[in-house]
Design a protein that fits this description.
The structure holds two protein chains of two kinds.
Chain A: H1 4-8, E1 22-24, E2 30-32, E3 39-46, E4 52-53, E5 68-72, E6 76-85, E7 98-105, E8 110-115, E9 126-136, E10 142-152
Chain B: E1 7-17, H1 24-39, E2 49-52, H2 60-69, E3 75-78, H3 84-97, E4 103-111, H4 124-128, H5 134-149, H6 153-167, H7 181-186, E5 189-191, E6 194-195, E7 204-212, E8 222-231, E9 245-246, H8 255-267, E10 276-278, H9 284-293, H10 302-307, H11 324-328, H12 332-347, E11 361-368, E12 372-380
Parallel strand pairs in B: 2-3, 2-4, 10-11
Antiparallel strand pairs in B: 1-7, 4-7, 5-6, 8-12, 11-12
Helix pairs in contact in B: 1-2, 3-12, 5-9
Classes of the chains: A mainly beta, B alpha/beta.
Chain lengths: 165, 381
C-alpha cells in the first residue's frame, strides 16, 4: 500500500503521488506530492459551521454535521508550545527524542504534532510538515507518521504569544 | 437546587499507595467496612451501591459486595476516567434525591498499572505515531499556564513542596515526607518544564462514602450541597479530551469551568465562601490551572496569589491540605472520593494531621481524560 489511497479522497487536485514502500499509520492522515515532496495533513472542513478539524472525520466534532469535506491543511506553521519526549511512549517504535508541539498552521488552525528536534523549540520557530518512519507493522510494512521539521530556528526573544487568546 | 438534603452518613478509606499483597476487592472491602463502621450502620441498611473504577474489570463492585456478604441490592459500576468516583457520587445523590432509596454506598477503588500507562483511550495509530504520550500533554498545558500567568518552573516546584509538606501530616497519603524546592528541580526531567516529582504517581487505594436522606449520628452534619459532572466541548487544542486540533479563537469553556459554574449555582456559594479546596494536582501546573478554572483567582492573578500564599495552609483558601495527588498518588476510581472523605473529616473537625479552625464549605475537583471534570461542594450544618 502507498499513501496514494489517502490522496485519492482529496479529489483530482493533486497531480500525482509519491510511491512509498510503506504505509501510513492511519489511512487518510496525510498526503504527499511526488513533484516536490510536499506533505499535507488531511483535515475536514464542515460546510455547515465552516470549522476545520484534524484528523479528517465524517462528522464535524464541533457541530455534529455530516456535511464535511476532506481538505489539505497548510504544510507550514509556527511552534506555539513545545516539549521534549525523551522516552518512547507506549506503542511507539520510532526515534527518540522528539518534540511534541502545538503548531499554529498558516490557516490559524492549531494542531498537536511531533517535531524532529533534540531540544525544546522556542515559540515562533517555523516548521513544515514531513513524515517519519515509526517502525513496521506485523506484515513488515514500514509505518509512516507525520512529523514536522524545523525550517528556521527562532531566537528565544519572541516567546510571548499566547495560545487561545 | 438540591431540594432534598443529602447527607454523608459515614466515610471510609484504604490508604493510597502500592499494595501487592492485596487484590482490588480487598481494598474495596476495607474502605466499605470502614465507612459502615463510621456510619454505625449494618450492610443491610445499604439499598444500592455505586462503584467507580477505571481498571477494575468486569463487575468490580459486585465482587466487593460478594466478599462483604451478598445482599442482592443493585450494584452499578461506573467509569468516567479521573472523575469515576465523582460520577458514582452523582448517581448515588440523584437516586436519593429521586427518593428511590434512603441510604446508598458510593465506592471508588483502583489498582493502577505502573509507569507511563497504556490507555485504551488512544487508538493504535496514535500510539504508533508517538502521540500517546500523556506527560507531554501535561507539559504543554503547563507551559501555556506559565506563559499566561508569568510564572516559571520554580513556582511549580513550590507547589510540590507545599503539597508534600501537607501530605507529610496525612497518614493515608502514599508519600509522607517533605521535599525541598532544590530536590524537586533536581529530579529527572520528564517533559520540559515538568520534573518527575512534579507529577503524581498512579497507584492503588479505595474510598467509600455512605449517603443518606437523614443524618442520624450526633456528629456535625455534612451535606452534599452540589455534585456536578461535565464533559468537554470541542475546540481547545490542549483539552483533556486530547484532540489533535483546536481553534486559536473562541476557545470554549473547559469541563472544569463548566462543572464549577454549575456547582456554585446549585450550592448557592462562590469562591469567597470556600474554606478549603481539594483539586486535581495530577502535575504541579494542573493545580494552578484548576484553581483558575474554579475561580480561586482571576486570569493573570496567579503570581500574586502565590506571592501572597493564598493556597498555603493558613492562607486565604488552602488548596490540597490533604497533600493532594502529589502526596497521595492517583488511584483513578478512588481519588475523587478520597477528596470527599478528607473534606468530610475537615468539616467535622476530625481530620488527621490537624484541622482548620473554621471549615464550613469545602470543594473537591477532579478532571481527566475523556474529557471529564467533577466538582463536589460539601457544607457543614
Amino acid at each position: 500500500m502507498t499513501s496514494g489511497r489517502a490522496i485519492a479522497s482529496v479529489g483530482q487536485s493533486v497531480v500525482s503521488v509519491v510511491a512509498m514502500p510503506a504505509k501510513p499509520v492511519r489511512e487518510g492522515l496525510f498526503a504527499a506530492s511526488s513533484e516536490d515532496g510536499t506533505v499535507w495533513l488531511l483535515g475536514s472542513e464542515c460546510t455547515k459551521c465552516a470549522r476545520t478539524a484534524f484528523p479528517a472525520s465524517e462528522l464535524c466534532p464541533y457541530c455534529g454535521s455530516d456535511r464535511t469535506q476532506v481538505s489539505r491543511l497548510p504544510s507550514d506553521g509556527v511552534v506555539e508550545l513545545c516539549t521534549l519526549v525523551r522516552k518512547s511512549p507506549p506503542g511507539y517504535r520510532g526515534p527518540t527524542p522528539y518534540g511534541l508541539a502545538v503548531i499554529r498552521l498558516t490557516s490559524d488552525l492549531l494542531i498537536v504534532a511531533p517535531v524532529e528536534t533534540h531540544e525544546v523549540l522556542a515559540c515562533g520557530t517555523r516548521v513544515r510538515c514531513g513524515v517519519r518512519e515509526v517502525g513496521e507493522d506485523e506484515e513488515g510494512n514500514l509505518l509512516l507518521a507525520p512529523c514536522f521539521r524545523v525550517l528556521e530556528v527562532q531566537p528565544e526573544a519572541s516567546l510571548m504569544r499566547v495560545v487561545g487568546s | 437546587m438540591i431540594d432534598t438534603p443529602i447527607y454523608i452518613a459515614g466515610v471510609g478509606i484504604h490508604r493510597f499507595g502500592r499494595f501487592p499483597a492485596q487484590t482490588l476487592t480487598d481494598l474495596g472491602v476495607h474502605a466499605f467496612r470502614a465507612a459502615l463502621h463510621d456510619a454505625e450502620l449494618p450492610l443491610s441498611a445499604i439499598q444500592a451501591i455505586y462503584c467507580g473504577s477505571v481498571y477494575g474489570g468486569v463487575a468490580a463492585g459486585h465482587k466487593v459486595l460478594g466478599a462483604l456478604g451478598a445482599t442482592s441490592v443493585p450494584v452499578v459500576n461506573v467509569e468516567a476516567g479521573c472523575a469515576s468516583g465523582a460520577a458514582a457520587l452523582l448517581l448515588g445523590t440523584l437516586a436519593l434525591r429521586a427518593q428511590a432509596y434512603d441510604c446508598v454506598a458510593v465506592l471508588g477503588m483502583e489498582k493502577m498499572p505502573k509507569g507511563m500507562i497504556r490507555s485504551s483511550f488512544f487508538d493504535l495509530w496514535q500510539e504508533q505515531a508517538g502521540l500517546a504520550v500523556t506527560p507531554a500533554y501535561f507539559a504543554l498545558r503547563a507551559q501555556q499556564l506559565l506563559r499566561e500567568e508569568g510564572l516559571d518552573v520554580r513556582d511549580l516546584a513550590k507547589i510540590v513542596v507545599k503539597n508534600r509538606a501537607n501530605g507529610a501530616l496525612n497518614p493515608y497519603a502514599m508519600f509522607q515526607s517533605r521535599v525541598t524546592e532544590e530536590e524537586v528541580l533536581a529530579s529527572p526531567e520528564v517533559c520540559e518544564p515538568l520534573r518527575l516529582w512534579m507529577l503524581c504517581s498512579p497507584n492503588e487505594g479505595a474510598a467509600c462514602v455512605i449517603l443518606a436522606r437523614k443524618a442520624v449520628l450526633g456528629r456535625r452534619k455534612v451535606r452534599v450541597a452540589a455534585i456536578t459532572l461535565r464533559s468537554h466541548r470541542f475546540g481547545n487544542v490542549l483539552g483533556e479530551h486530547t484532540p489533535l486540533c483546536g481553534t486559536a479563537r473562541e476557545v470554549p469553556p473547559s469541563p472544569s469551568e463548566l462543572a464549577a459554574r454549575e456547582a456554585y449555582e446549585i450550592a448557592g456559594v462562590g469562591p469567597p465562601e470556600l474554606d478549603l479546596v481539594e483539586c486535581q494536582d495530577t502535575d504541579a501546573a494542573r493545580e494552578l490551572l484548576a484553581c483558575r478554572e474554579l475561580g480561586l483567582y482571576g486570569a493573570g492573578e496567579c503570581a500574586q496569589a502565590l506571592r501572597e500564599g493564598w493556597f498555603l495552609p493558613g492562607g486565604k483558601i488552602p488548596v490540597n491540605l490533604s497533600g493532594g495527588l502529589l502526596s497521595k498518588g492517583e488511584p483513578l476510581g478512588a481519588s475523587a472520593l478520597g477528596q470527599v472523605v478528607y473534606l468530610c473529616w475537615q468539616l467535622q473537625g476530625r481530620a488527621p494531621g490537624g484541622g482548620l479552625e473554621r471549615c464550613r464549605v469545602a470543594l473537591a475537583h477532579t478532571v481527566g481524560r475523556g474529557a471529564n471534570a467533577s466538582v463536589t461542594i460539601l457544607q457543614g450544618e
